[in-house]
Amino acid sequence: MSPNPNAVAYTDPLTGLGNRRRLMDKIRKLASERADDPAPFTIGIANIDGFKPINDLFGHAAGDEILCQVAHRLRACLPDGGFVARIESDEFAFILPLVFEKKGAEKIGRMFKDVLSAPYDLGDRNVRLSASFGFAVYPFAGEQFAELLKSADTALYRSKRRGRGQITVYSEEIAEEMRRGTQIEQALRRAIIADEVAVHFQPIVDLADGSIEGFEALARWTDKELGFVSPGLFIPLAEERGFIDSLTETLLKKAAETAKHWPPELFLSFNLSSAQLIDPATAFNMLAIINRVGLDPRRLELEITETAMMTDPEVAAKVVNELHSVGIRVSLDDFGTGQSSLGRLRDFTINKVKIDRSFISEITIDKSAEHIVRAILMMCEGLNLKVIAEGIETEEQAAKLRELGCKSGQGWHYGKAVDATATFALIEAEELARASATRSSLLIR
Fold it and tell me: Which residues of 247-267 are buried (b: 16+ CB within 10 A; e: fewer)?
């Protein structure tokens, strides 16, 4: 007997669950039944965290087996009247007709999370995974299928941003955050085109005498309507919305044009985004920009973070090695807060490590912070890596770092980030002071 073509059209062939089309029909029918007296119901999306590496490590057959086990677990623990569908590769959606509000959705989410976190049997090995969840409650998060699914997807996106195994229920607060994000995105895109995003420079100094070794370039943006927008907000937004490349290229060009007029011994430090660290074209693009400007690549130092480095270690290592091969140095920013191992650190061609400010701020009042900084300094000495302490705000912190053997640092104690004109003034003031000291020394002789 041939299969029912309608059943095939509504079924996911791998797991036997319903597909997106079946989900859409179910939600439309439920919404129609409750339209006159809109009693709430909940839809949710579950996404398996880190599923792609499973496919890469163990093969697609293992990945398919895990997806079938996920489908079986979700179907087995659905509450009364519930429905589950597979709507994308590692994404499952469900309808919960008897869940009416946020607390109920979160309770179901925690139950699903526990069920999906148990080990998966692949025959010769067990694999542990986690899942992230996004929920949307009808009619508050939407009355139509597309709107409801979009709200659940937005909540899932919020969960993913917070880490693995998170649960988020769509709310007006999240909606407002998304609207604000879109407003900032549109304004930032216009600002990039109008060349309104500025570069400021913070000095990096020799802790022994305070002399300037180089500057870190930092993005600054003040919008006519939004006012000052923190780079901690607009840089991640540019990464998430997919236009970090154009922003970075604009900023690096400006920074390099300024730096090429500095004394040749001063270096420029510039932050590389996580998206660029897993883009194989990054080394070529960075070199092309500074070559057009005329900055010696040996004067450029690109900063990467541990977390970005571990997103795709193989591609990141290739990018770092290519940058190094053309003379561009690479420093590891926020060291101590990420997820890299010492073994991984050894695999990368890193020139310098920046100790995260969270350790520096506690170094004079917390012995554990001092021990961590001491250990990082000893490790870097063994690996022949230079070290910069960031976030130095007091002379006491600077003195403690000198005592521990740290050679370089930056922070408000030595100067805030200032524009290109003020940066040149800093350099000139130091050169004048040095020349004056030299003349005094000659006179004494």
Answer: bbbbbbbbbbbbbeebeeebb
E strands in 196-313: 198-206, 212-223, 227-229, 267-271, 300-305
Q: Which of 52-66, 135-149, 424-438 has the highest mean pLDDT?
A: 135-149
Phi-psi region of 439 (alpha: psi -120 to 50; beta: other; left: phi over 0): alpha
Read off the pTM.
Answer: 0.73
Cβ-based neighbours of 271, under 8 Å, separated by 6 or more: 216, 217, 218, 302, 303, 333
Q: What are the beta bridge partners of residue 332?
A: 304, 353
Q: What DSSP state is assigned to residue 430?
A: H
Note the helical H segments in 86-211. Answer: 102-117, 145-162, 172-193
| Neighbouring C-alpha atoms within 13 Å toward the C-beta of 241 | 19
DSSP annotation of 242: T
Strands 300-305 and 167-169: unpaired
- C-alpha distance from residue 274 to each of 28, 290, 319, 330 (Å): 40, 20, 12, 14
Distance set, CA 35 to CA 18, 28, 32, 277, 364 (Å)? 24, 10, 5, 49, 63
Could you give the domains of the chain? 5-170 (3.30.70.270), 181-436 (3.20.20.450)
**CA atoms of 272 and 330, how far apart (whole Å):** 10
Calculate mean pLDDT across residues 359-366.
90
Phi, psi of 141 (to 5 degrees): -100, 10
**Tens digit of each residue's pLDDT (9 = 90 or more) over 7-35:** 678 899 999 999 999 999 999 999 888 87
Query: What pLDDT does 345 receive?
Result: 64
Which H helix or E strand runs over 136?
Answer: strand 131-138
The strand pair at 408-409 and 386-389 is best described as parallel
